[in-house]
Amino acid sequence: MTDDTFNALRPRLFAIAYRMLGTRADAEDVVQDAWLRWHGSDRDAIQSAEAWLVTTTTRLAIDRLRSRQTEREAYVGWWLPEPLVELDEHTPERAVELASDVSVAMLWVLERLAPEERAAFLMRQVFDQDYADLAATLGKSEAACRQLVHRAQERVRQERPRFVVSRDTHRDVLTGFMQAAASGDRAAMKTFLAGDVQFVSDGGGKVPSFGRILRGAARIAGLYWWVLDQFPGAVTYRLVRINGEPGLLRYVNGAIESAQSFIVDDGKIVAVYVVRNPDKLANVAALA
């Protein structure tokens, strides 16, 4: 087994680490640590490279998540995952793979799970690992793993978005809202927003954000109007994919200001997740 084996599995390992940790830097660090352990291992004794690397990556991610718990608890305001922004369209298969379980809304829900619950849920429900392998990965009995998965499923079922819309519908609603926001037309914006729409923002203490969840179409439309009023002629929106789903990038004077994800139901936006923390936007391309 060579480095080619590891490189072939790298995307899967990154997918596991990112879903566990929610930031590109932490996920890449975990994958790098797994690579170092792979290099230091007795590969002749490894029966399955994939099983060994998945187990190693999962355990490293759990350890990293535990070590980050204190930081997360001290985080200023709401914590949202670092967005994975795709400026260009890729294959439909790629989009479906991302959108189903790595959306910002889904990771927002997973953030409420304990590290081992999160790992158990992801490995079982997302990566379809059987309970025997899951028990080996987590170092627990199959019965304990079943309990972890059950508890996680209940939490996710209660809190996850229940809305499923087509990609075209999602994009059409977002395009209309973007045009209304770019023109500052509050009445038009409200036609795309559900009456009880919620708005969550993450500034990380680095830039202003709201310390509570805001609700209401008029209020959210007013926020978008206010940004345009504060920076006349300087605000630009760009329709992209964020974590596999249609989303918006907002630029002010050509610099990235936020990455915005949306949940759409019945032709209306029901939730908005806005990442403003500049540390989480460092990998987003500048406005061309």
UniProtKB/TrEMBL annotation:
One of its GO terms (biological process) is DNA-templated transcription initiation. Residues 110-152 form the RNA polymerase sigma factor 70 region 4 type domain. SUPFAM superfamilies: NTF2-like (SSF54427), Sigma2 domain of RNA polymerase sigma factors (SSF88946), Sigma3 and sigma4 domains of RNA polymerase sigma factors (SSF88659). Residues 6-69 form the RNA polymerase sigma-70 region domain. GO terms for molecular function: DNA binding; sigma factor activity. Interacts transiently with the RNA polymerase catalytic core formed by RpoA, RpoB, RpoC and RpoZ (2 alpha, 1 beta, 1 beta' and 1 omega subunit) to form the RNA polymerase holoenzyme that can initiate transcription. NCBIfam families: PRK09636.1 (NF007214), sigma70-ECF (TIGR02937), SigX4 (TIGR02957). This is RNA polymerase sigma-70 factor. It comes from Pseudoduganella plicata.
